[in-house]
Protein: ACY2 Aspartoacylase
Amino acid sequence: GVEVGPQPQGVARADVLDKMRKIVKHGLDFVQLFNEGKEFLPCTIEVFKIMEKVDYPRNKNGEIIAIIHPKLQDQDWQPLKNGDPLFLTLDGEVIPYQGNCTVYPTFINEAAYYEKKQAFVKTEKIKLTAKHLRLSVS
Structure:
C-alpha cells in the first residue's frame, strides 16, 4: 500500500494524487527493471523510524487541556529538540518538549488521530543500507 498525505478526510487534492501516481509509477518501474535483470548497486538512505505515539495533555477526566503549539504545527519531519514548544494550554501556557534526544514528529495534529489519542508520532532519523540487488536467473 501507499499512503500519501497529509490531506483531510473526504478531500481529494490534485497535488497529493499526483504524488501518489508518481510513487506508484516509480515502484512499478523498479519491478520492471528488476524483472529485466537490472543490477541495483548498494546504497544508503535516511529513513524515519517510529519511536512512540504521543497523546495530548489531558485532565483527570480524559479531556484534552492543550493544543499543538503554533510553532510545531505543519512541521512534520522537522527536528524537535529539548525545550522546543510542544503544546499550548487553553490558558496560554507553553508546554515544552522534554526529551534526551532530537526527534522528528509526524502526523502532527491530524484530525483522523484525535479519537486514537494521538497528537503526533515521534520518529528518529536512521540510515538503512540496501545490499546489491539483482534477479538471479537459473
